[in-house]
Amino acid sequence: AKKWTMPIQNWRLAMNWFTIQFDDRLKDHL
């Protein structure tokens, strides 16, 4: 799992992207 060895800064961007995608899917289900 070498792909998971990312800098903290990239993690923030990834979490922001996942949160946006997750919110969109939740809105679709609601």
Can you tell me about this structure?
The protein has 30 residues and is mostly helical. It is 73% helix and 0% strand. The protein is built from one helix and no strands. It has one helix at residues 8-29. It is elongated and about 35 Å long. The mean pLDDT is 81.
Ends distance: 34 Å
Radius of gyration: 12 Å
Chain-averaged pLDDT? 81
Q: Work out the strand percent.
A: under 5%
| N-to-C SSE string, H for helix and E for strand | H
Helix percentage range: over 70%
Uncertain runs: none
Count of alpha and pi helical runs: 1
Structural class: mainly alpha
| Shape, principal axes of CA atoms | elongated
**Number of distinct beta strands:** 0
Q: What composes the largest sheet?
A: none
What are the SSEs and their pairings?
Elements: H1 8-29
In short:
This protein has 30 residues and is mostly helical. The chain is built from 1 helix and no strands.
Features:
0% strand, 1 helix, 30 residues, mainly alpha, single chain
